[in-house]
Amino acid sequence: MELQTLTYIVVGASFALYIGIAVATRASSTGEFYVAGGGVHPIANGLATAADWMSAASFISMAGLIAFLGYDGSVYLMGWTGGYVLLALLLAPYLRKFGKFTVPEFIGDRYESQAARIVAVVCLILISFTYVAGQMRGVGIVFSRFLNVDITTGLVIGMAIVFVYAVLGGMKGITYTQVAQYCVLIFAYTVPAVFISLQVTGVPIPQLAMASTVEGTDGIPLLMRLDQVVTALGFSPYTAGTKSRIDIFFITMALMIGTAGLPHVIVRFFTVPKVRDARMSAGWALLFIALLYTTAPAVGALARLNLTNTIQPGPVGSAEGNLAYGERPDWFRTWEDTGLLQFEDKNGDGRIQYYNDANSAFTKTADEYGWAGNELSVDRDIIVLANPEIAGLPNWVIALVAAGGIAAALSTAAGLLLVISAAVSHDLLKGIFAREISEKNELMAGRMSAAFAILCAGYLGYNPPGFVAEVVALAFGLAAASLFPVTLLGIFSLRVNKYGAIAGMLTGLLFTLGYIVWFKGIFFESMAANVADNWLFGISPEGIGTVGAGLNFVVALGVSALTPPPSQEVRNLVERIRVPN
């Protein structure tokens, strides 16, 4: 069966499954809409949490980052995985014992302040919309390549699917849909990895391929071979880092505490029956996440090697080693059609020169060959999706990868959109502006706000501020700087009050958001050729959330020390949620 037909069948079957689950588990009350009725089994919640958290950034973009950044890409593995340890130990069980629907509700009640609740809602919406932009871009990339539709049409289809199971099913429908989506995405991620690992190294376990030898190279290990290949083209060694230690530390920390502060992840721990189940859910989620995250480094390394060997079929880095453009393989042509792979014949020789033309030492050699600059542009987000095609795997594997990429993007997008919906309908409408609203009307308001959020998400997916993992990393930084500190202090500090919480959230959010906009925006880039030289202490926008979190802690504690302490009722509440049942 041809690839196009097979892809339609596989992706269509997955859509039918998601919609069927949503219809069967549709929410009939606000409790089911916001927290799935609080009766989800820990294993099911672990599966759903893993799908919720392993977004398009994890499935589509992370291995692409590792493929091109090499050692520097490890910050994403360390940060996103380490954050779950913080979440399981410091937040999940305590917030579950508190027993409310949302993080802003916890902040409002803990700090006895509707103003603090509103600020938390603003932070939550900014974080969620930044994050969801990356997910919708991932949806557009998958649709544009595998279903032969333009990105706009792909976004509309994705929005329609999310609308059905998020608006109809609420958290109850999303939870069980995400269980199915995890099964789809993990199968779609690991099956090609096994095929390619076996093909390149003869070892069927991708995790072991990293330490295995490449077939046909007289016993050269994979990473050593990859170093040889990329350095021959003027790139930095794959196993050597180029980022400064301080930037690696700050990015890793921002991703860790950002993970623990992400509202769509935290709310998952309100869906289980008991506090003990919240801890168990975090443990199961970490296990399910590890299946993908221990596979990702091998996927990135194998993809980079396959891509380079395809473009450089002859001696790597030599004048005669380049692929003739007219002989490019089918996968090259199909990805060109999406605009995510581009060739520009700068010297008119009809061959593809792929090398690092920013490396002055190598460009001297390139000039001797008659090359006029790097001619190939490869979007990092296509690496995982194109990997099976580059390796020549069967069509059913390629179709499966398409379904997995869509599942990863839609699962997280649905969770984020529901968090936005709950913030508007429950925290703002029910909690502040219309406290007497009936449950039926609140449920209707939740569905209407979810629908509006989906439209906004579609627009952000059409005009995203960067490639998928970069956008998501910025969302983690905003979460680290705004919600994580005051949530943690709300659990473990009896002295922090509403004035400190509000001042801390605003300081962390505004500092981090301002830094990101300044260095990622068009204004500063038009003023400075080398933006990185102007970073504060060498810290990139992806890592600045750590500084924002530090400022949040300092301001919250400082302002609280200078203002009256919380009431005794709140102090009793804090002590109660910290004591095990």
What does this structure look like?
This protein has 581 residues and is mainly alpha-helical. It has helices at 3-24, 30-35, 42-53, 56-69, 74-98, 103-110, 114-146, 151-167, 170-201, 206-209, 222-231, 245-261, 263-266, 275-293, 296-311, 330-338, 360-369, 383-390, 395-433, 439-462, 468-492, 498-520, 522-525, 544-562, 568-578; strands at residues 341-343, 376-378. It has two domains: 3-301 and 388-477, Up-down Bundle (Sodium/glucose cotransporter), CATH 1.20.1730.10; 304-384, no CATH class. The chain is built from 25 helices and two strands. Strands 1-2 form a two-stranded antiparallel sheet. It is globular.
CATH class of the largest domain: Mainly Alpha
**Average of the residue pLDDT scores:** 81
Architecture of the largest domain, CATH level 2?
Up-down Bundle
Helical fraction equals: over 70%
Structurally, the number of domains stands at 2
| Unreliable residue runs | 522-529
Descriptive key words:
581 residues; Sodium/glucose cotransporter; 2 domains; two-stranded antiparallel sheet
